Amino acid sequence: MGGLSCRKLRGKDRSAMTRARRLARLAEATDRLVGWYRLPKPLGLAVLIGLRQRLRADNLFDTGRGAADRPPTTLAGRTDFKTARTLDGTHNDLRDPLMGSIGSRFGRNVAPELTHPEPTERFWEPNPRLVSRELLTREEFQPATTLNLLAAAWIQFEVHDWLSHDTTNSRPFEVPLEPDDPWPRKDRPMKIRRTAPDPSPDGSGPPTFVTADTHWWDASQIYGNTTQFADGLRAHSQGRLGLDQHGLHPVELERFLAPLGNKNNFWVGLAMLHALFLREHNAICERLASAYPAMTDQQLYDTARLINVALMAKVHTLEWTPAIIAHPTSQAALHANWFGLLGERFDEAHGRVFADEVLQGIPGSPTDFHGVPYSLTEEFVAVYRLHPLIPDDYEFRSARDNSLLKTCRLPDLTYQHVRERLDEFSMPDLFYSFGTANPGAVTLHNFPKYLQYFDRRPRDTPIDLAAADILRTRERGVPRYNAFRRALRLKPAATFDELTDNPHWAEQLRQVYQDIERVDLMIGLYAEPKPPGFGFSDTAFRIFILMASRRLESDRFFTRDFRPQIYTDVGMTWIRQNSLRTMLLRHMPELEPSLRGVSNPFAPWPVAGPAPLVARPAPAVSAPPGDAPSPYLRYSDRLEQPAPGEDLDIARIIEKLTRANERVYRRYGHALRDAHAKSHAILRGRLTIEGDLPVELKQGLFADAATYEVIARLSSTAGVLRSDQVRGVHGLAIKVLGVTGERCLADDDADTQDFLLVTHKEFPFKDVKDYLEKGMPLAGLLVRLSDRQLAFVIWVLRLAEPLLAFLGRRLPLPMQVFIAPNDNMLGMDFFSAAPIRWGDYVAKFKVVPGSANLKPFAGQPLSRTAGPEAYREMMVDFFSTEAAEYHLCAQLCTDLASMPIEDATVEWPETQSPYVRVATLTYPQQNPYTDARRYFGDEVLAFNSWRGLSAHRPLGPINRMKLRVYDASSQFRHRKNRARSLEPTHGDLPD
């Protein structure tokens, strides 16, 4: 049953294998100790590669092949299988033609002895219907805010290609129903069909099951796996497919589809993707026929299918998966799966130089089964049960102006209504509606309510699909959650509280299961905490690490036959140059405004407005009559588009931050700022507004020439007090005094305007969700690292930077902050990083050295012998004898495509809108760091970018987060330190 082949190894091979196993074990130990997602990306990537090696060695099991485990003989007979995929999946492996074909068995990722279904008395404990009702019922839709609804449709589209079990009418399961169960009386008992048994079981050992489709990634969901459907779909001219007016297969062909198979689960979301890839096939045929006029209809069809399938695999690997597991390390691993660690640019410049998949990716590498015949596995089936992604309610809107066209429920979109909806809505409107809507989060209490009463009549009786998912996993012998984790060498949950970080869920799990060892796999996967950026669990990710690569590396057409001789030069270019975005725009150019600025089509698209957000003529009070319209974007409250769930994410950040602040308080016996904890100078000065500004810049505080007193605080590090020799984030907080006018916040009666700046142009995290999932874990790690440990990490990152640059890549933004030169702070530029309102416009701003006596400090490295308080000492030394002048400059926004508000990681191009000096900051000679000043600046003062004029309202997700986070942090600090917060009215500082 193990199926692992043995061969005599040469000494060099044996030594290499021993080293690989040791490294794999080291990676697994590191993951258990730290967690791969908590490591810097280069180290995390190395750990993931090691984990994959260990999983390949220990978690691939062959279940064998019975005499009848093969496709129907009527599908055999083709002789051109060396250059084309077959309908029944045979001859992908030329030495074992039946491998992966229709009728072949599902393999295993856990040892076969662990896959015996439980005895009847334990099989039903607890009742799957009880589990569904108590733990999965959706009371309120929980959105996955980093994804759009196309992501939900996509994975079902792919699963319909990969996975298919037949069912049988014989002895259906009868699900026990409690007296108070709301299941309709007319539909009792609830009957769920059993999985069809293997036609030639082994007779001993656990049961095996066979696939009703091929195991290969071959787009059989659109091309079919019967000659009747496949031939009926073809136009038999230039390789093209004969499609209906919607781009779908003709409806009459559905008589050739199994009534209880994928046809039964067809809905509008699937229809959209079917139509897209069927149209793509015809577009590929047109290009091939133009380039190779001698190709026959059959050759064009076969080659176009190969290209279309490869493009589908590329979209899944490089677009869908990075969207649903959006951790920087896992995203890099996925990119490496396709292009290798050397990257896409190396491949484009040099072609295939190395056979190794790690260096240059799986496509084009040698085929490798790792000693076990290829098949998908029952465990792979189990972890891809992602029905919570599907919403119950849908809004269909116009791609032109976002106007509401119609609302529908899920049953209105299912099989029997698909073509009604396609007659009702255009394809661009459908894709726009899905692109701007969120799917559900894969979590407890979020199963679609319409699927808990899945009415499939007249083809079958209604079922609770949630209960069926649990029942199927038990029926096929997939271990329960803790046993599953043990089989993958992961630590099992000792208690319900350890399984989940949600105390309410822990109690519910305890009530339903009573014994932690009885928790079903699917329930455990939904309940466990997810890695930052992940849409599904880390436990499921282990199977993904293994099988995502295996789907590619075991397929001849993705490996040794992924070459121009099979695909043609045109085909290889088509795959290289295309993506889901280019496909959408090729077939629906009307979507171009919606996709503008969207880096991943599976992430939420911007909502179309009733009119483009472009510059409008300034009102008469701001612009003299007859002047040309301003080229700058005018402010509107429609510019901000908070993501669904943002308030909840901010609340979670505050909760985590409060716990972190408590730890720091216990460590120091004193509360620190969670950001910029260490001050270097508390400066008094004045801000002089320029008098001859352009009309667009004469806004808010800067409307008229004036001079204001200011108090400024220069600082660095986050959460802990570090030596200045360790590079961190540097900050400048400016409080302008005597500022009157309408305030941002209704309860703010201060006469001050706060401006907060840092030394990086863009914020390292895109939005609130990104900060919660990536920034908070990073902050937690930084607090735990000693200065020496952090210095070592920075040293490693600096070593990695030139290598990544050679490969055409960059370190993630959060890492770039730490490898920036540790220079003299007097010569540094400071940036707002996120935009603010600038009266009638939108802007970012910066503060840069202005006076001649500051110029020598620009780029001047901090001396390694200067000590841990180098910044404070240089400030005291300088200002004891010198004054300084800095320039405050503003950069106006021209458009949201290149200068977005909702993505804080994008640097606004200065070539499009240069910074313009709007004011001068002057600091006179002074002592900037007396004990009294330090206490006043660190304990009494609080800076918040929301404390100021409404004309300078902070914009974007990071600023919306700061509104509540800074206030919570300030209150914590002042409460713990028993220091009263004071908003100053004059610039005299205590000395």
Automatic annotation (TrEMBL):
Cofactor dependency: Ca(2+)
Thylakoid among keywords: no
Protein name: Peroxidase
Gene Ontology molecular-function annotations: heme binding; metal ion binding; oxidoreductase activity, acting on single donors with incorporation of molecular oxygen, incorporation of two atoms of oxygen; peroxidase activity
GO biological process: defense response; fatty acid biosynthetic process; oxylipin biosynthetic process; response to oxidative stress
InterPro entries per the UniProt record, alphabetical: A_dioxygenase, Catalase_sf, Haem_peroxidase_animal, Haem_peroxidase_sf, Haem_peroxidase_sf_animal, Oxylipin_biosynth_metab
Spans annotated as Disordered: 168-208, 618-640
Provenance organism: Mycobacterium parmense
Signal sequence annotation: none
Pfam families xrefs: An_peroxidase
